[in-house]
Amino acid sequence: MPTTARSEPQDPNEAARAVRAEWRTRQLLTAAARLMERDGFHGVSMQALADEAAVSVGLIYRYFGNKDELLLAVIINVLNAFASQVPTAIEAAGDDPVERIAAAFRAHCEVIDEHRHAAVLTYRESGTLSPEGRNKIKQMEVDTSEPLRTAIRSGVESGHLVDVDVQLATHNFLLMAHGWALKHWHLERTLQFEDYVAKQTALMLSALLEPERRHQYEHLLTTR
Q1: What does pTM read for this prediction?
Q2: Which residue ranges form the domains of the chain, and what is each CATH number?
């Protein structure tokens, strides 16, 4: 009988090193996003970053070759979060296209809320990146918005939504998600995160839903 190949057990020491490296990378990315958003890319030195993250400058260079690499990594980290969390949320919402749209928008907002400093930094400093870096994040932005775009397109094709420009509707949802980071300083005076997501969802779906479908989604259209 043929034998089944067995994977070798992972070295516990190697696994521990991988966990520490991932934790350290996230620590550095969080500190860099916070500092660069506050002081600007050019206003942040590696020493300032080391102080913020409570590490040595030499340790930073073990993970990133220079400040440009670090900025690109901060932005890509947010896009990777979209790539991971948005499809998962959509699948968990089931087959209903409107529920999938609402779940996708919420997931985008949750990523933005978790990475507010990095989101603002993306708008402010992406022009600092090399042409290759800018092209990479542009393509990643297109790719990570595709699940939401697909959900909206499915809603139109199934008759749940009016015949809307799918690209523009996707763009508007994404702008509202990013708006939580860009205008958080103002919005937080009157809105909690949950309120913001619920009211923006209701606002967009009120415009997009076919009138005869509205009764099916009162839970998404009714806000406090």
Answers
A1: 0.87
A2: 66-213 (1.10.357.10)
